[in-house]
Design goal:
By secondary structure, the protein is an alpha/beta fold. It contains 22 helices and 16 strands.
Length: 635
C-alpha cells in the first residue's frame, strides 16, 4: 500500500516561487532546486521524511487548498489548482495570457511607486504593460499597496495595463537580478522592454500615488506598533505595560490593545498547559494578534514572560511582515528581587520541585540581546521605571508621551512596583482618578477658551493636495459669503503641496461663478495648529476626514465632510445658524457617507473639473448662508 502524501504550507516566498513555476513565468526553469536557480523549497524534517517515503509532497495555501504536488526528490511540479482569492487576483496573469491580451505593447518592470518624472517618461512610450513585481521582499510597499499605486499611475499615463508578477527576493542580489531578467523577458516575449529612469532629488509622487504611499508608509509616529515587555515572573513587566497603556489612553490619538499574558490565556489560549511547547504556542498566538493590530496602525501592548529568544524573533518577524514596528522592553529585574516579591511562594515551590518548568528556576530565561531598552525595577516607583521606557520610545520616534505627572506638594507618593509571580496580578493599589497628576493629564490636552462673542467663525476646507477642490471651496465660499460676513475661510491638504498655485483646469471653473482672480492662492499642508484654530473643518471626502481623525481623534465634533455637513444643515432647518449651528451639528455627528464625497477631478480633464465644481457649489449654497446667518428663516 503506497505511503500517503504529506501536505505542507510553504513560506510566502516559496508560494511566490511556486506560482512562477506553475504559470511558466520562470521559463526555462520548471522545477524547484535547479542548479543556478534561486527557486527552492525547504521542508521541515518530519515532512521531508514522509515525502521521501511517499515520493512527493502536496503544497497547500494558508487556507489548506492544495496547489501543487512536488516530487521528492526531484522538485518536479504538478499543478493541482490556482489561487482564486486575494486582492487584485485578476491581475496575476500567466505569460501565455499576457501574450494573448497585450501583444505589441512595451513592457515596464515596476518595483516601486512611480514619481511624477517617471509618469511623464512613460506617457511618451506608447501602449504599455506595467509589470508590477509584487513578490515577497522585492518592493518596499506591500503587494496590495504597490498594485494600488501602479493602477493610479496607469490612470495618469493613459494607455497602460497592469500585470502582477510574484517575483520574490531570495537574499542574493545577483541571483535575484538574473531571475528578474528571466521572468520579465518571459512575459514580454518579442515585445520591447524599457526601464524606468531613476528619480531625481526633487522628484515627487503625484497626489493620488502619494496618498497610497503615505498610507503604506506612514511616519514612524503613526506606524503600527507592538510594545513587547519580557522578563521574569514578578519582574514588573505587566505593571509597567499597564502604566504605559494608561498613559497612551490618557493622551489619546492611538488605538491601543492590551495583550496581557493572563488575559490571553483565558480568552485566546484556553486549554494550553505550561509545558515549553504550549508556552511557545501561547507567545506565537500573542504575536500573531499583535502583528495584525500593527498592520492596521494600532498599538498592541504585550507582557508575557516570553523566555525564549527564538519565539521572540518569530514574533518580531510577524510584526515586520505586517508592516509594523516591534519595540522590545526587557524588564531586567534580577531573579533575587523577583523571589523577594513572591507573596504566593511560587518560586519557593519551584525550588522544591513542586512546579515543573518554572522560568528562572527549572526552565531557562534567555536574556534578550536585541532589547530596545532594559529596565530594572528594583527599588523604583512605577513612574520612575516607566520614564526609561518613555525616553527610549521618544528617542526612537515612535511615541512622544509626557513623563510622570508632577505631584503637587503634599500629594500622594507613587506606588511601588510589585507583582506576584506567574499571575503577576497582585499589585499595590494604583493611582485613582482623584490622584494628583492624573486629572491634569486627562484635561490639559484639549482645554480651550471659548471664542469671543464677536470673533469670526473660522472654516477650514480640506482635500488631498490643496490645489483643486479645497481651494475652489475656499474661494467660492468667500464669494458666496460676501465681504461683510464674519467668517474666515481657509484651505489645506492632507498631503498638501507647499506654496503651489491652484490647478489651472479647476481654476477655469471659478470665473463663470463670479470669482475673477485666483492668482494669490498658494497651497499648504494641514498641521495641528491649523486644525486647532478652525471652528469647523469640512473635507471633500470621507477618507480625508478619517485621515484627520486618525491623528486627532479629539477633533471629531468639528470635522465633517462637506456633504455630511450639508445634510446636517438641511436637517436642522433654517432657524439655526452660526455658532449655534456648529454646537448642534456636533451633537449630530456620525460616520460620513462616502456617497456624499466630492471626487477628485485632478488630471481628469475639464468635464471632471466642472462636475466637481458644480457639486461643491451646490453644497456651499446650503452651507455658507447657514454659517453666515443669511438664509431665510421661518420667523
Amino acid at each position: 500500500m503506497p505511503e500517503p502524501v504529506p501536505q505542507h504550507c510553504p513560506t510566502p516566498r516559496e508560494l511566490d516561487d511556486l506560482e512562477l513555476l506553475v504559470t511558466g513565468a520562470a521559463h526555462p526553469t520548471t522545477r524547484f532546486g535547479e542548479p543556478g536557480s534561486p527557486l527552492s523549497l525547504t521542508l521541515p524534517p518530519e515532512v521531508e521524511s514522509a515525502a521521501r517515503d511517499a515520493g512527493a509532497v502536496e503544497l497547500v495555501d494558508p487556507e489548506g487548498l492544495p496547489l501543487a504536488r512536488v516530487t521528492v526528490p526531484g522538485g518536479e511540479v504538478e499543478s493541482l489548482a490556482h489561487a482564486e482569492f486575494g486582492p487584485f487576483r485578476h491581475l496575476y496573469l500567466a505569460p501565455s495570457t499576457v501574450h494573448c491580451r497585450y501583444r505589441g505593447r512595451t513592457f515596464v518592470p515596476v518595483a516601486d511607486a512611480l514619481t511624477e518624472g517617471q509618469v511623464e517618461q512613460l506617457r511618451a512610450a506608447g501602449p504599455l504593460v506595467l509589470l508590477t513585481l509584487v513578490g515577497t521582499g522585492t518592493a518596499d510597499l506591500s503587494p496590495v499597496g504597490l498594485l494600488r499605486a501602479t493602477l493610479r499611475a496607469a490612470e495618469l499615463i493613459g494607455d497602460a495595463e497592469v500585470v502582477a508578477v510574484p517575483l520574490a527576493s531570495h537574499g542574493d542580489a545577483d541571483a535575484d537580478h538574473a531571475l528578474g531578467v528571466q521572468v520579465v523577458s518571459t512575459y514580454a516575449g518579442d515585445d520591447p522592454i524599457i526601464g524606468l529612469a531613476d528619480p531625481t532629488e526633487d522628484d515627487v509622487y503625484p497626489a493620488g500615488i502619494a496618498e497610497v504611499v503615505d498610507f503604506e508608509q506612514p511616519p514612524v509616529d503613526r506606524q503600527g506598533l507592538v510594545l513587547f515587555f519580557t522578563g521574569l515572573s514578578g519582574s514588573g513587566k505587566s505593571t509597567l505595560a499597564r502604566a504605559l497603556m494608561d498613559r497612551l489612553l490618557e493622551q489619546g490619538g492611538r488605538t491601543v490593545t492590551s495583550l496581557d499574558g493572563d488575559v490571553v490565556r483565558r480568552n485566546l489560549s484556553a486549554g494550553l498547559t505550561f509545558s515549553k511547547a504550549d508556552r511557545e504556542t501561547n507567545i506565537r498566538r500573542i504575536g500573531w494578534v499583535a502583528a495584525e493590530i500593527s498592520r492596521h496602525g494600532g498599538v498592541a501592548v504585550c507582557s508575557p514572560i516570553a523566555p525564549f529568544d527564538e519565539t521572540r524573533q518569530q514574533v518580531r518577524g510577524m510584526v515586520d511582515d505586517a508592516g509594523g514596528a516591534f519595540f522590545l522592553v526587557h524588564v531586567a529585574t534580577p531573579l533575587e528581587e523577583c523571589e523577594r516579591r513572591d507573596r504566593k511562594g511560587l518560586y519557593a515551590k519551584a525550588r522544591r520541585g513542586e512546579i515543573p518548568e518554572f522560568t528562572g528556576i527549572s526552565s531557562p530565561y534567555e536574556v534578550p540581546e536585541d532589547a530596545d531598552v532594559a529596565v530594572d525595577t528594583t527599588g523604583r516607583s512605577i513612574e520612575d521605571a516607566l520614564d526609561d521606557v518613555l525616553d527610549a520610545l521618544r528617542e526612537a520616534g515612535y511615541l512622544d508621551l509626557p513623563s510622570a505627572p508632577v505631584v503637587e506638594q503634599g500629594g500622594a507618593p507613587a506606588p511601588t512596583v510589585v507583582e506576584t509571580p506567574e499571575t503577576e496580578k497582585q499589585r499595590q493599589p494604583g493611582p485613582t482618578a482623584g490622584s494628583p497628576g492624573f486629572d491634569t493629564l486627562r484635561t490639559s490636552s484639549f482645554a480651550a477658551q471659548p471664542p469671543a462673542e464677536d470673533a469670526p467663525l473660522k472654516v477650514l476646507f480640506v482635500c488631498t493636495a490643496n490645489i483643486c477642490r479645497s481651494p475652489f471651496m475656499e474661494l467660492m465660499a468667500r464669494q458666496l459669503a460676501g465681504p461683510d460676513a464674519n467668517i474666515e475661510f481657509r484651505s489645506a491638504g492632507t498631503h498638501g503641496f507647499t506654496d503651489h498655485e491652484m490647478d489651472e483646469v479647476m481654476a477655469t471653473t471659478l470665473a463663470p461663478r463670479g470669482v475673477a482672480d485666483h492668482s494669490a492662492f498658494r497651497s499648504r499642508a494641514i498641521d495641528k495648529a491649523i486644525l486647532d484654530e478652525a471652528d469647523l473643518v469640512l473635507t471633500a471626502e470621507a477618507a480625508h476626514r478619517t485621515f484627520i481623525l486618525d491623528d486627532h481623534p479629539a477633533l471629531f465634533r468639528k470635522v465633517f465632510t462637506i456633504g455630511q455637513f450639508a445634510e446636517v444643515v438641511r436637517a436642522l432647518g433654517p432657524d439655526v445658524s452660526g455658532r449655534e449651528l456648529l454646537e448642534q451639528a456636533a451633537q449630530r455627528r456620525g460616520n460620513a457617507d462616502a456617497a456624499l464625497d466630492v471626487h477628485d477631478p485632478y488630471r481628469r480633464g475639464p468635464e471632471a473639473a466642472e462636475t466637481a465644481a458644480a457639486g461643491i457649489e451646490e453644497l456651499l449654497r446650503v452651507v455658507v448662508p447657514a454659517l453666515a446667518g443669511t438664509r431665510e428663516t421661518t420667523a
